[in-house]
DNA sequence: CCCACTGGTAAGCCGATACTTACGGTAAGC
DNA sequence: GCTTACCGTAAGTATCGGCTTACCAGTGGG
């Protein structure tokens, strides 16, 4: 589920920066938009994408909306890559021995 | 290095399918294009993207070009996600306790 | 009640990109 | 040497995606 959306979500530079900033500390939309070179609506759209990918979660706090990382989405992507890890390593080692170079 | 390129490479459905098929078994370009609904040049272009992302490696075998997974690229992406894992988990648990629901 | 703050959405623009067909170039078989 | 198989690249097209400005809704304080 988080594969297609997850990888697409982290493919964009600005969006990945937002994700990293959210990971450092749960923040509101306005706070996140402050240091970036894009407008606040753009940040809001990026957060929507991250939300659909399951990488972040939101909670209301008064009139502000606080975003934080959702570890489940991160875990899903990590697990996906893990499925290829051992297989990839074995294939690569085998080829390296054959090829030598 | 493999962050931007890596996530972008796996963001596309067709390209991720190619990647998974390469992971199952090192294959030539023609073999990879057989089961897909895109033409062979498209597969070649996708492999180029995966190559630049460091997710696959190529080796010549006669007139054929065999592609296989490069575990280093996979590891780079895995490590990137790992950096957020503990932090994400802690933040999420804390919020869950505060929020309760 | 009115106004400021916060944030999500709509419409439109523009660059990025995924796909196609057409072509060139190298390796194997007759 | 000529044909066939395999692969990468070029050019062109169409769709997708990120950004902006403008607008609307909900919250809180005077």
Task: Report on the architecture of this protein.
2 copies of one chain form a homodimer. Chain A has 101 residues and is of the alpha+beta class. Helices cover 69% and strands 14% of the residues of chain A. Chain A contains 5 helices and 3 strands, in the order ααβααββα. A 3-stranded antiparallel β-sheet of chain A has the order 1-3-2. In chain A, a hairpin with a 2-residue loop joins strand 2 and strand 3 (64-69). The radius of gyration of chain A is 18 Å and the shape is elongated. The N and C termini of chain A lie far apart (40 Å). The model of chain A has no long low-confidence stretch (mean pLDDT 89). Chains A and B meet through helix 1, helix 2 and helix 5 of A and helix 1, helix 2 and helix 5 of B. Chain A binds a DNA duplex (30 and 30 nucleotides) through residues 8, 12, 14-15, 28-30, 38-46, 48, 62-65.
Strand order, sheet with most strands of chain A: 1-3-2
Radius of gyration of chain A: 18 Å
Sheet/helix structural class of chain A: alpha+beta
Strand and helix order of chain A: HHEHHEEH
| DSSP E strands of chain A, number | 3
Regions with little confidence, pLDDT below 50 for 5+ residues of chain A? none
Identify the quaternary structure here.
homodimer
The biggest sheet of chain A, with number of strands, parallel, antiparallel or mixed sense and barrel status, is: 3 strands, antiparallel
Distance between the termini of chain A: 40 Å
Shape of chain A: elongated
Percent in strands of chain A? 5-15%
Biggest chain-to-chain interface with counts: A-B, 33 and 33 residues
Number of contiguous helices of chain A: 5
Mean pLDDT of chain A: 89
Helix content of chain A: 55-70%
């Amino acid at each position: 589920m988080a594969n297609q959306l997850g990888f697409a979500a982290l493919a964009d530079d600005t969006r990945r920066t937002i994700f990293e900033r959210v990971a450092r500390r749960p923040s509101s939309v306005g706070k996140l938009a402050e240091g970036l070179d894009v407008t606040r609506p753009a940040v809001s759209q990026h957060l929507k994408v991250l939300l659909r990918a399951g990488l972040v979660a939101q909670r209301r706090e008064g009139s502000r909306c606080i975003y934080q990382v959702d570890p489940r989405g991160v875990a899903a992507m990590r697990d996906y890559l893990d499925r290829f890890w051992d297989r990839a390593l074995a294939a690569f080692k085998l080829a390296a021995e054959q090829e030598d170079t």
